[in-house]
Design goal:
There is one protein chain. The chain has three domains: about 180 residues, Rossmann fold (3-Layer(aba) Sandwich), CATH 3.40.50.880; about 190 residues, Rossmann fold; about 100 residues, GMP Synthetase, Chain A, domain 3 (2-Layer Sandwich). About 30% of the residues lie in helices and about 25% in strands. The chain is built from 14 helices and 18 strands. The strands form three sheets. A nine-stranded mixed sheet has the order 2-1-3-4-9-8-7-5-6, sandwiched between helices. The protein binds xanthosine-5'-monophosphate. The site of xanthosine-5'-monophosphate has 17 residues, from helix 10.
Length: about 500
């Protein structure tokens, strides 16, 4: 049994991010909804509880709340944002609505266990439209901003802490230190959790739950589905059958590599389905990105159903869904940014007992760590992510085999040049996009009218935000020359200098 922290979810955008920041400090975090009964929480023996932020106002009648008893269990509590207001409200403090403040503000901190080794002036990320004006009995203010009289408060006797700002967000200075203080100084955690535990616990869990089941895995060869597949393979061996759908939207030579690695290296049951014509047929003439995703997601599931019926009835389907896929697809209160094919595109009438998603709480860098723990070779683990809908979302406009082939060649050149420069690990993701812009050029003294390719490269660790990569001009120049010389029908190369947000990483 590991020491663990409960992250009580009040509907904020950063809930899993809080859990991940706790795990980063080698402490196990469990996220539960605010509807979880207090009896269940008491049973678990948590070392501490974190109330997350949320999008509502505690002054609304039907805002998410919790029983005040939770603050009297003798378990340290840290409330963040909405969670801080909730503490104030449960303890009869006075809260006032104010105009929304969002972004980084200067916070003055006072002496507190929570602010050990934190300077007295720090810049912190806030997003609020109400704050505490009169702190409850037994509490004292421990931080302020120019406008906010209570940016943090605490009750030392009860070990209850409330902060208006978000320590889990990277732009909050000393956010990591503040969480560390809560976990180690206040909750008394020792840091007894590592990624190997997650991997072993998951293998153990699936071994006991699924050893009598026949399980099918959607293997794409990308990091996520590879890690999910190897994890399940370790748990249930040959009861797992992996289906690798070659939808004709893969990168150059990718299909053969995947087949070789998983069949030979891991000795998995792997079936390669050549479904190019089927996917390209369905996608013919489709230009809308969301429709492309939905079509591919649905077709994927249909192919699996057909293959599984050939194998006899399969009980479960494994998918490599990771946490950013879920929030960006708009599960819960979060707005839909893009429907990731393995989440939003799922049809209602899936013919399996259920879906198994072993990585659904993890972020990309955590998935990589899990991959290393599972003994997956470094080059596969460090392979840059590739979206489920593949090159369909990198070919703007209509998708045809010819256009895909043009993109494959250009993309392979870009990847080769980045690798030659030794930048693969530094750059989170880098690829080419075939735009639907045609422009005039000149080649061998003759006029051309051909496509523009865009190169995209970003630096990111969690893929939720990303900075465009400042790749040296020399590499861009060589890539551009090679692409225009070696790939037919491309006469112009541009480089995308937009970060996420406001752009997303993929173009569609
Ligand atoms: P965006 O474009 O949303 O991408 O900033 C974030 C990360 O997710 C990948 N991505 C997907 N992965 N199915 C996936 O499995 C999808 O539909 C999908 N769309 C984007 C993208 O490549 C990047 O790593």
């Amino acid at each position: 049994m590991h020491e663990s922290i409960l992250v009580l979810d009040f509907g904020g955008q950063y809930n899993q991010l809080v859990a991940r920041k706790v795990r980063e400090q080698n402490v196990l975090a469990q996220v539960l909804p605010f509807t979880t009964p207090i009896e269940k929480i008491k049973e678990k023996g948590y070392k501490g509880i974190i109330f997350t932020g949320g999008q509502r106002s505690v002054r609304d009648d039907n805002s998410p709340r919790y029983v005040a008893e939770i603050l009297n269990l003798g378990i340290p509590v840290l409330g963040i944002g909405y969670g801080a207001q909730l503490i104030a409200s449960l303890e009869q403090g006075e809260i006032q609505s104010v105009s929304n403040e969002c972004g980084n503000v200067d916070v003055s901190t006072q002496k507190s266990k929570l602010f050990k080794d934190v300077p007295s002036q720090i810049s912190c990320y806030v997003n609020y439209s109400e704050y505490t004006v009169n702190v409850p009995n037994g509490y004292r203010v421990t931080a302020t901003t120019k406008v906010c009289p209570c940016a943090a408060m605490e009750n030392k006797q009860k070990n209850v802490f409330a902060i208006q700002f978000h320590p889990e967000v990277t732009s909050t200075e000393y956010g990591k230190q503040i969480l560390k203080n809560f976990l180690f100084e206040i909750c008394g955690c020792s840091g007894d959790w590592v990624m190997a535990d997650f991997v072993n616990d998951s293998i153990g869990k699936y071994k006991s739950e699924l050893s009598d089941s026949k399980v099918l895995c959607a293997l794409s060869g990308g990091v996520d589905s590879s890690v999910a597949a190897v994890m399940l393979h370790k748990a249930i061996g040959k009861n797992l059958t992996c289906i690798f759908v070659d939808h004709g939207l893969l990168r150059k030579d990718e299909g053969d590599t995947v087949e070789q690695v998983f069949k030979q290296q891991f000795d998995m049951n792997l079936i390669r389905v050549n479904a190019q014509d089927r996917f390209l047929g369905k996608l013919a003439g489709v230009t809308d990105p969301e429709r492309k995703r939905k079509i591919i997601g649905e077709e994927f599931i249909r192919v699996f159903e057909e293959e599984s019926s050939k194998l006899g009835k399969m009980d479960y389907l494994v998918q490599g869904t990771i946490y950013p896929d879920i929030i960006e697809s708009g599960v819960g209160d979060n707005a839909v940014i893009k429907s990731h094919h393995n989440v939003g595109g799922l049809p209602e009438d899936i013919d399996f007992k259920g879906i198994v998603e072993p990585l659904r709480d993890l972020f990309k860098d955590e998935v990589r760590k899990a991959g290393i723990e599972l003994g997956i070779p470094e080059d596969l683990v460090w392979r840059q992510p590739f979206p489920g809908p593949g090159l369909a979302v990198r070919v703007m406009g209509g998708i045809t085999k010819d256009r895909l082939d043009i993109l494959r060649e250009a993309d392979a050149i870009f990847r080769e040049e980045v690798a030659n420069a030794g930048l693969e690990k530094e750059i989170g993701q880098y690829f080419a996009v075939l735009t639907d812009i045609k422009s005039v050029g000149v080649k061998n003294d003759a006029r051309t009218y051909d496509y523009t390719v865009a190169l995209r490269a970003v630096i990111t660790s969690d893929f939720m935000t990303a900075q465009w990569a400042q790749i040296p001009y020399k590499i861009l120049a060589k890539t551009s020359t090679r692409i225009t010389n070696e790939v037919e029908h491309i006469n112009r190369v541009v480089y995308d200098i937009t970060s996420k947000p406001p752009a997303t990483i993929e173009w569609e």
